[in-house]
Amino acid sequence: MLTKYSFKLGAIGQGLRHLDEQQIRELIIRYYLGGKKRTLIEEFRLNISVQKIETLFPIIYIEDEICPRCNSPMYRVPKSTACIPRSSPPMCVSCHHITHKSCLCAGCTKIIEQKKHAELVLIRANYKDIKKDAVSENKITLRDRLYLGSLLSTCFSEAYQLIWPLDNVVEDLAPTREYTEMILHHLHENKFIVYSAHNPSDIFKIGVDGIKISNYFKTIWELNIKSISSEEHQHIDPLVSELSDPKNLTAVEDIDECVELWKEVSLFECLKQLEHMLAYYRLYAPYLWASTRLGNATRRSLNYALQDCSMCEIRYILGITLKRLIANQRAWNCSFVTVLKSLPKKFREYVDRFHTEVWPVEKRGRDVDLTPVSKFFYKYFLNVSEDKVFNLKVKASSLIDM
Protein backbone atom coordinates (compact mmCIF):
# COMPACT_ATOMS: atom_id res chain seq x y z
CA MET A 1 0.00 0.00 0.00
CA LEU A 2 1.03 3.60 -0.59
CA THR A 3 0.86 4.43 3.13
CA LYS A 4 4.03 2.49 3.85
CA TYR A 5 6.11 4.81 1.63
CA SER A 6 7.60 8.18 2.40
CA PHE A 7 6.20 10.08 -0.56
CA LYS A 8 5.77 13.51 -2.05
CA LEU A 9 2.95 14.65 -4.27
CA GLY A 10 2.97 15.56 -7.94
CA ALA A 11 0.91 18.31 -9.56
CA ILE A 12 -2.32 19.00 -7.65
CA GLY A 13 -5.49 18.93 -9.75
CA GLN A 14 -8.33 21.44 -9.64
CA GLY A 15 -10.46 19.20 -7.42
CA LEU A 16 -7.97 19.32 -4.52
CA ARG A 17 -6.62 22.88 -4.74
CA HIS A 18 -8.79 24.03 -1.82
CA LEU A 19 -6.73 21.69 0.43
CA ASP A 20 -3.15 22.14 1.59
CA GLU A 21 -0.50 19.43 1.16
CA GLN A 22 -0.95 18.06 4.67
CA GLN A 23 -4.70 17.63 4.16
CA ILE A 24 -4.14 15.89 0.80
CA ARG A 25 -1.67 13.48 2.43
CA GLU A 26 -4.17 12.74 5.20
CA LEU A 27 -6.95 12.18 2.65
CA ILE A 28 -4.85 9.69 0.64
CA ILE A 29 -3.65 7.77 3.71
CA ARG A 30 -7.13 7.53 5.25
CA TYR A 31 -8.57 6.44 1.88
CA TYR A 32 -6.14 3.52 1.54
CA LEU A 33 -6.50 2.58 5.21
CA GLY A 34 -10.16 1.88 4.51
CA GLY A 35 -11.84 5.15 5.48
CA LYS A 36 -15.47 5.52 4.39
CA LYS A 37 -15.52 7.30 1.06
CA ARG A 38 -18.71 9.27 1.72
CA THR A 39 -17.30 10.54 5.03
CA LEU A 40 -14.07 11.60 3.31
CA ILE A 41 -16.01 13.45 0.58
CA GLU A 42 -18.02 15.39 3.17
CA GLU A 43 -15.08 16.12 5.50
CA PHE A 44 -12.70 17.28 2.77
CA ARG A 45 -15.43 19.02 0.72
CA LEU A 46 -14.79 17.04 -2.48
CA ASN A 47 -16.95 17.59 -5.53
CA ILE A 48 -16.76 14.00 -6.84
CA SER A 49 -18.81 10.79 -6.79
CA VAL A 50 -17.94 7.98 -4.39
CA GLN A 51 -16.80 5.70 -7.24
CA LYS A 52 -14.27 8.18 -8.67
CA ILE A 53 -12.61 9.65 -5.58
CA GLU A 54 -9.17 8.21 -6.40
CA THR A 55 -9.12 10.02 -9.75
CA LEU A 56 -8.52 13.27 -7.83
CA PHE A 57 -5.28 12.02 -6.30
CA PRO A 58 -2.03 13.34 -7.79
CA ILE A 59 0.85 11.15 -8.92
CA ILE A 60 2.81 10.04 -5.85
CA TYR A 61 6.62 10.21 -5.94
CA ILE A 62 8.32 7.68 -3.68
CA GLU A 63 11.14 9.51 -1.90
CA ASP A 64 13.04 6.43 -0.70
CA GLU A 65 13.01 4.55 -4.03
CA ILE A 66 15.08 5.38 -7.11
CA CYS A 67 15.26 3.73 -10.51
CA PRO A 68 17.90 0.94 -10.63
CA ARG A 69 18.54 1.71 -14.31
CA CYS A 70 19.06 5.50 -14.39
CA ASN A 71 18.85 6.65 -10.70
CA SER A 72 15.81 8.86 -11.35
CA PRO A 73 12.85 9.17 -8.93
CA MET A 74 10.11 6.53 -9.00
CA TYR A 75 6.38 7.28 -8.84
CA ARG A 76 3.06 5.46 -8.50
CA VAL A 77 -0.36 6.09 -9.98
CA PRO A 78 -3.09 5.62 -7.31
CA LYS A 79 -5.89 3.15 -8.01
CA SER A 80 -9.25 2.40 -6.44
CA THR A 81 -9.32 0.43 -3.18
CA ALA A 82 -11.29 -2.19 -5.13
CA CYS A 83 -8.20 -2.91 -7.26
CA ILE A 84 -5.49 -5.40 -6.36
CA PRO A 85 -2.83 -4.06 -6.09
CA ARG A 86 -4.26 -0.70 -5.04
CA SER A 87 -1.65 1.25 -6.96
CA SER A 88 0.41 0.72 -10.05
CA PRO A 89 3.95 -0.66 -9.68
CA PRO A 90 6.66 1.98 -9.18
CA MET A 91 7.62 3.65 -12.48
CA CYS A 92 10.66 5.74 -13.37
CA VAL A 93 9.94 9.34 -14.41
CA SER A 94 12.87 9.29 -16.86
CA CYS A 95 13.34 5.87 -18.56
CA HIS A 96 9.89 4.49 -17.66
CA HIS A 97 11.34 1.44 -15.95
CA ILE A 98 8.68 -0.48 -13.99
CA THR A 99 9.45 -2.54 -10.90
CA HIS A 100 7.97 -5.66 -12.45
CA LYS A 101 9.36 -8.79 -14.15
CA SER A 102 7.58 -7.90 -17.40
CA CYS A 103 9.24 -4.48 -17.73
CA LEU A 104 10.29 -3.69 -21.32
CA CYS A 105 12.17 -0.44 -20.78
CA ALA A 106 15.42 0.12 -22.68
CA GLY A 107 17.56 -0.88 -19.69
CA CYS A 108 15.69 -4.11 -18.96
CA THR A 109 15.54 -5.04 -22.66
CA LYS A 110 19.31 -4.64 -22.91
CA ILE A 111 19.86 -6.83 -19.82
CA ILE A 112 17.54 -9.53 -21.23
CA GLU A 113 19.40 -9.50 -24.55
CA GLN A 114 22.76 -9.76 -22.79
CA LYS A 115 21.49 -12.66 -20.69
CA LYS A 116 20.15 -14.48 -23.76
CA HIS A 117 23.45 -13.94 -25.60
CA ALA A 118 25.41 -15.32 -22.64
CA GLU A 119 23.08 -18.33 -22.48
CA LEU A 120 23.48 -19.00 -26.21
CA VAL A 121 27.28 -18.84 -25.88
CA LEU A 122 27.12 -21.35 -23.00
CA ILE A 123 24.66 -23.62 -24.89
CA ARG A 124 26.81 -23.65 -28.04
CA ALA A 125 29.97 -24.36 -26.06
CA ASN A 126 28.20 -27.24 -24.33
CA TYR A 127 26.90 -28.46 -27.72
CA LYS A 128 30.46 -28.68 -29.08
CA ASP A 129 31.56 -30.68 -26.02
CA ILE A 130 28.68 -33.14 -26.47
CA LYS A 131 29.37 -33.58 -30.20
CA LYS A 132 32.93 -34.63 -29.38
CA ASP A 133 31.54 -37.73 -27.61
CA ALA A 134 29.55 -39.22 -30.50
CA VAL A 135 28.13 -42.69 -29.83
CA SER A 136 29.65 -45.61 -31.71
CA GLU A 137 27.41 -47.44 -34.17
CA ASN A 138 28.09 -50.82 -32.55
CA LYS A 139 26.45 -49.67 -29.30
CA ILE A 140 23.00 -49.47 -30.88
CA THR A 141 20.67 -52.07 -29.31
CA LEU A 142 17.31 -53.34 -30.58
CA ARG A 143 15.53 -50.80 -28.39
CA ASP A 144 17.69 -48.01 -29.78
CA ARG A 145 16.96 -49.21 -33.32
CA LEU A 146 13.22 -49.08 -32.68
CA TYR A 147 13.35 -45.59 -31.19
CA LEU A 148 15.80 -44.17 -33.73
CA GLY A 149 14.14 -45.78 -36.72
CA SER A 150 10.64 -44.54 -35.89
CA LEU A 151 11.94 -41.06 -35.04
CA LEU A 152 13.97 -40.73 -38.25
CA SER A 153 11.14 -42.01 -40.44
CA THR A 154 8.80 -39.45 -38.85
CA CYS A 155 10.67 -36.16 -38.77
CA PHE A 156 14.22 -36.37 -40.13
CA SER A 157 15.15 -33.75 -42.73
CA GLU A 158 17.62 -35.00 -45.33
CA ALA A 159 18.20 -31.46 -46.59
CA TYR A 160 19.17 -30.02 -43.20
CA GLN A 161 20.34 -33.24 -41.50
CA LEU A 162 18.13 -32.30 -38.54
CA ILE A 163 15.28 -33.91 -36.62
CA TRP A 164 12.43 -31.40 -36.54
CA PRO A 165 10.53 -30.66 -33.30
CA LEU A 166 7.74 -33.18 -32.80
CA ASP A 167 5.26 -30.38 -32.09
CA ASN A 168 5.77 -29.32 -35.73
CA VAL A 169 5.00 -32.78 -37.11
CA VAL A 170 1.41 -33.68 -38.00
CA GLU A 171 1.68 -37.36 -37.04
CA ASP A 172 2.25 -38.41 -33.41
CA LEU A 173 5.41 -40.47 -32.96
CA ALA A 174 3.94 -42.83 -30.33
CA PRO A 175 0.47 -43.85 -29.07
CA THR A 176 0.63 -41.46 -26.09
CA ARG A 177 2.52 -38.24 -25.46
CA GLU A 178 4.12 -39.79 -22.39
CA TYR A 179 5.57 -42.64 -24.48
CA THR A 180 6.89 -40.13 -27.02
CA GLU A 181 8.65 -38.20 -24.27
CA MET A 182 10.05 -41.46 -22.87
CA ILE A 183 11.52 -42.29 -26.30
CA LEU A 184 13.14 -38.86 -26.68
CA HIS A 185 14.45 -38.95 -23.12
CA HIS A 186 16.06 -42.38 -23.70
CA LEU A 187 17.76 -41.29 -26.93
CA HIS A 188 18.92 -38.00 -25.42
CA GLU A 189 20.21 -39.51 -22.16
CA ASN A 190 22.17 -42.13 -24.11
CA LYS A 191 23.49 -39.39 -26.45
CA PHE A 192 22.13 -40.92 -29.66
CA ILE A 193 20.56 -37.53 -30.32
CA VAL A 194 21.69 -34.12 -29.06
CA TYR A 195 20.04 -30.73 -29.18
CA SER A 196 20.93 -28.62 -32.19
CA ALA A 197 22.74 -25.29 -31.95
CA HIS A 198 19.84 -23.84 -33.98
CA ASN A 199 17.47 -24.04 -31.00
CA PRO A 200 16.29 -20.81 -29.31
CA SER A 201 17.55 -20.31 -25.76
CA ASP A 202 14.06 -20.37 -24.23
CA ILE A 203 13.76 -24.16 -24.54
CA PHE A 204 16.67 -24.60 -22.10
CA LYS A 205 16.91 -24.32 -18.34
CA ILE A 206 20.33 -23.20 -17.17
CA GLY A 207 21.03 -23.77 -13.49
CA VAL A 208 23.63 -25.07 -11.06
CA ASP A 209 23.07 -28.59 -12.43
CA GLY A 210 24.00 -27.48 -15.93
CA ILE A 211 21.92 -27.14 -19.08
CA LYS A 212 18.62 -29.00 -19.23
CA ILE A 213 15.95 -29.13 -21.92
CA SER A 214 12.62 -27.81 -20.70
CA ASN A 215 10.50 -29.14 -23.58
CA TYR A 216 11.50 -32.18 -25.64
CA PHE A 217 8.67 -31.58 -28.12
CA LYS A 218 9.88 -28.12 -29.18
CA THR A 219 13.54 -29.10 -29.55
CA ILE A 220 15.45 -29.44 -32.83
CA TRP A 221 17.68 -32.52 -32.60
CA GLU A 222 20.76 -33.84 -34.36
CA LEU A 223 21.98 -37.41 -34.67
CA ASN A 224 25.10 -38.08 -32.65
CA ILE A 225 26.38 -41.39 -34.00
CA LYS A 226 30.02 -41.49 -35.04
CA SER A 227 29.64 -42.31 -38.68
CA ILE A 228 27.16 -39.44 -39.29
CA SER A 229 28.20 -36.75 -36.83
CA SER A 230 30.05 -34.76 -39.46
CA GLU A 231 30.26 -31.04 -40.15
CA GLU A 232 29.69 -31.59 -43.89
CA HIS A 233 26.12 -32.64 -44.69
CA GLN A 234 26.11 -32.87 -48.46
CA HIS A 235 24.69 -36.38 -48.79
CA ILE A 236 22.63 -38.49 -46.41
CA ASP A 237 24.78 -41.11 -44.75
CA PRO A 238 23.98 -44.79 -45.47
CA LEU A 239 23.55 -45.40 -41.73
CA VAL A 240 20.59 -43.00 -41.64
CA SER A 241 18.91 -45.03 -44.38
CA GLU A 242 19.72 -48.24 -42.55
CA LEU A 243 18.23 -46.95 -39.29
CA SER A 244 15.02 -45.61 -40.84
CA ASP A 245 14.56 -48.52 -43.29
CA PRO A 246 16.50 -51.56 -42.00
CA LYS A 247 16.76 -54.47 -44.42
CA ASN A 248 18.08 -57.30 -42.25
CA LEU A 249 16.47 -56.62 -38.88
CA THR A 250 14.74 -59.65 -37.31
CA ALA A 251 13.26 -60.40 -33.91
CA VAL A 252 15.44 -63.48 -33.45
CA GLU A 253 18.49 -61.24 -32.87
CA ASP A 254 17.40 -60.98 -29.25
CA ILE A 255 14.04 -62.62 -28.57
CA ASP A 256 13.86 -61.61 -24.90
CA GLU A 257 14.44 -57.93 -25.63
CA CYS A 258 12.05 -58.07 -28.58
CA VAL A 259 9.29 -59.51 -26.37
CA GLU A 260 9.88 -56.71 -23.86
CA LEU A 261 9.59 -54.14 -26.63
CA TRP A 262 6.45 -55.85 -27.91
CA LYS A 263 4.89 -55.63 -24.44
CA GLU A 264 5.89 -51.98 -24.17
CA VAL A 265 4.42 -51.00 -27.53
CA SER A 266 1.30 -53.07 -26.86
CA LEU A 267 0.77 -51.46 -23.45
CA PHE A 268 0.73 -47.95 -24.88
CA GLU A 269 -1.41 -49.10 -27.82
CA CYS A 270 -3.90 -50.45 -25.27
CA LEU A 271 -3.85 -47.12 -23.43
CA LYS A 272 -4.58 -45.35 -26.70
CA GLN A 273 -7.39 -47.82 -27.35
CA LEU A 274 -8.79 -47.05 -23.90
CA GLU A 275 -8.60 -43.32 -24.63
CA HIS A 276 -10.47 -43.91 -27.90
CA MET A 277 -13.20 -45.89 -26.12
CA LEU A 278 -13.58 -43.24 -23.42
CA ALA A 279 -13.94 -40.60 -26.14
CA TYR A 280 -16.79 -42.68 -27.59
CA TYR A 281 -18.61 -42.18 -24.28
CA ARG A 282 -17.60 -38.48 -24.39
CA LEU A 283 -15.29 -38.92 -21.43
CA TYR A 284 -11.74 -37.70 -20.96
CA ALA A 285 -9.55 -39.20 -18.25
CA PRO A 286 -5.84 -38.36 -18.80
CA TYR A 287 -5.06 -39.46 -15.24
CA LEU A 288 -5.61 -43.07 -16.35
CA TRP A 289 -2.25 -43.13 -18.15
CA ALA A 290 -0.46 -40.41 -16.21
CA SER A 291 1.92 -41.19 -13.34
CA THR A 292 -0.79 -41.29 -10.70
CA ARG A 293 -1.98 -44.07 -8.41
CA LEU A 294 -4.94 -44.77 -10.70
CA GLY A 295 -2.74 -44.53 -13.81
CA ASN A 296 -0.19 -46.98 -12.41
CA ALA A 297 -2.96 -49.39 -11.37
CA THR A 298 -4.40 -49.22 -14.91
CA ARG A 299 -0.98 -50.03 -16.40
CA ARG A 300 -0.50 -52.99 -14.07
CA SER A 301 -3.91 -54.37 -15.04
CA LEU A 302 -3.15 -54.00 -18.76
CA ASN A 303 0.26 -55.66 -18.33
CA TYR A 304 -1.49 -58.48 -16.47
CA ALA A 305 -3.88 -58.92 -19.41
CA LEU A 306 -1.04 -58.85 -21.96
CA GLN A 307 0.46 -62.01 -20.40
CA ASP A 308 -2.25 -64.19 -21.98
CA CYS A 309 -4.40 -61.92 -24.16
CA SER A 310 -4.03 -60.40 -27.58
CA MET A 311 -4.80 -56.70 -28.08
CA CYS A 312 -8.00 -57.70 -29.84
CA GLU A 313 -9.12 -59.62 -26.74
CA ILE A 314 -8.08 -56.75 -24.47
CA ARG A 315 -10.20 -54.36 -26.54
CA TYR A 316 -13.16 -56.73 -26.13
CA ILE A 317 -12.67 -56.96 -22.33
CA LEU A 318 -12.23 -53.18 -22.03
CA GLY A 319 -15.52 -52.69 -23.86
CA ILE A 320 -17.36 -54.96 -21.41
CA THR A 321 -15.68 -53.26 -18.44
CA LEU A 322 -16.61 -49.74 -19.58
CA LYS A 323 -20.22 -50.74 -20.31
CA ARG A 324 -20.51 -52.13 -16.78
CA LEU A 325 -18.99 -48.98 -15.28
CA ILE A 326 -21.37 -46.76 -17.26
CA ALA A 327 -24.30 -48.85 -16.01
CA ASN A 328 -23.04 -48.55 -12.42
CA GLN A 329 -22.69 -44.80 -12.78
CA ARG A 330 -26.31 -44.46 -13.83
CA ALA A 331 -27.54 -46.88 -11.17
CA TRP A 332 -25.61 -45.21 -8.34
CA ASN A 333 -26.23 -41.67 -9.62
CA CYS A 334 -22.63 -40.62 -8.98
CA SER A 335 -19.88 -39.00 -11.02
CA PHE A 336 -18.04 -41.10 -13.58
CA VAL A 337 -14.71 -40.15 -11.96
CA THR A 338 -15.80 -41.96 -8.79
CA VAL A 339 -16.84 -45.08 -10.71
CA LEU A 340 -13.74 -44.95 -12.93
CA LYS A 341 -11.50 -45.53 -9.93
CA SER A 342 -12.68 -49.14 -9.95
CA LEU A 343 -11.63 -49.62 -13.60
CA PRO A 344 -8.29 -51.43 -12.97
CA LYS A 345 -9.80 -53.87 -10.46
CA LYS A 346 -12.96 -54.50 -12.52
CA PHE A 347 -10.90 -54.97 -15.71
CA ARG A 348 -8.62 -57.55 -14.06
CA GLU A 349 -11.69 -59.36 -12.75
CA TYR A 350 -13.09 -59.62 -16.28
CA VAL A 351 -9.71 -60.78 -17.62
CA ASP A 352 -9.82 -63.75 -15.19
CA ARG A 353 -13.43 -64.48 -16.14
CA PHE A 354 -12.49 -64.29 -19.82
CA HIS A 355 -10.06 -67.20 -19.36
CA THR A 356 -12.11 -69.35 -16.99
CA GLU A 357 -15.42 -68.96 -18.83
CA VAL A 358 -13.80 -68.98 -22.31
CA TRP A 359 -15.65 -66.04 -23.83
CA PRO A 360 -15.83 -66.18 -27.63
CA VAL A 361 -14.05 -63.27 -29.33
CA GLU A 362 -14.22 -62.73 -33.06
CA LYS A 363 -10.90 -61.82 -34.66
CA ARG A 364 -11.14 -58.23 -35.86
CA GLY A 365 -8.97 -55.49 -37.28
CA ARG A 366 -7.94 -52.33 -35.52
CA ASP A 367 -10.19 -49.32 -35.02
CA VAL A 368 -7.41 -46.94 -33.93
CA ASP A 369 -4.69 -45.74 -36.31
CA LEU A 370 -1.18 -46.94 -35.59
CA THR A 371 1.57 -44.47 -34.81
CA PRO A 372 5.07 -44.62 -36.43
CA VAL A 373 6.75 -46.42 -33.52
CA SER A 374 4.15 -49.22 -33.66
CA LYS A 375 4.24 -49.44 -37.46
CA PHE A 376 8.03 -49.61 -37.40
CA PHE A 377 8.04 -52.39 -34.79
CA TYR A 378 5.43 -54.52 -36.56
CA LYS A 379 7.00 -54.06 -39.99
CA TYR A 380 10.70 -54.55 -39.22
CA PHE A 381 10.78 -56.50 -35.93
CA LEU A 382 7.81 -58.85 -36.39
CA ASN A 383 7.40 -58.67 -40.17
CA VAL A 384 3.63 -59.21 -39.95
CA SER A 385 0.61 -57.16 -40.99
CA GLU A 386 -0.95 -54.73 -38.54
CA ASP A 387 -4.26 -56.63 -38.33
CA LYS A 388 -2.55 -59.98 -37.82
CA VAL A 389 -0.37 -58.76 -34.95
CA PHE A 390 -3.48 -57.27 -33.34
CA ASN A 391 -4.73 -60.85 -32.87
CA LEU A 392 -1.41 -62.31 -31.65
CA LYS A 393 -0.51 -62.89 -28.01
CA VAL A 394 2.62 -61.11 -26.81
CA LYS A 395 4.82 -64.15 -26.19
CA ALA A 396 8.18 -65.52 -27.33
CA SER A 397 6.39 -68.52 -28.83
CA SER A 398 4.52 -66.17 -31.16
CA LEU A 399 7.85 -64.85 -32.46
CA ILE A 400 9.25 -68.33 -33.04
CA ASP A 401 6.13 -69.43 -34.92
CA MET A 402 6.32 -66.46 -37.34
Task: Summarize the helices and strands and which ones pair or pack.
Blueprint: E1 7-9, H1 21-32, H2 37-43, E2 60-66, E3 73-76, E4 91-92, H3 106-132, H4 142-155, E5 156-157, E6 162-163, H5 177-189, E7 193-195, E8 204-207, E9 210-213, E10 221-223, H6 238-244, H7 255-280, H8 293-306, H9 311-332, H10 336-340, H11 343-356, H12 372-382, H13 386-390, H14 396-401
Antiparallel strand pairs: 1-2, 2-3, 3-4, 5-6, 7-10, 8-9
Helix pairs in contact: 4-6, 4-12, 7-8, 7-9, 7-12, 8-11, 9-11
Could you provide a short overview of the structure?
46% of the residues lie in helices and 8% in strands. It has 402 residues and is of the alpha+beta class.
Structure description:
The protein contains 14 helices and 10 strands. The protein has helices at 21-32, 37-43, 106-132, 142-155, 177-189, 238-244, 255-280, 293-306, 311-332, 336-340, 343-356, 372-382, 386-390, 396-401; strands spanning 7-9, 60-66, 73-76, 91-92, 156-157, 162-163, 193-195, 204-207, 210-213, 221-223. Strand 8 and strand 9 (210-213) form a beta hairpin. The chain is flat. Residues 229-235 have low confidence and may be disordered.
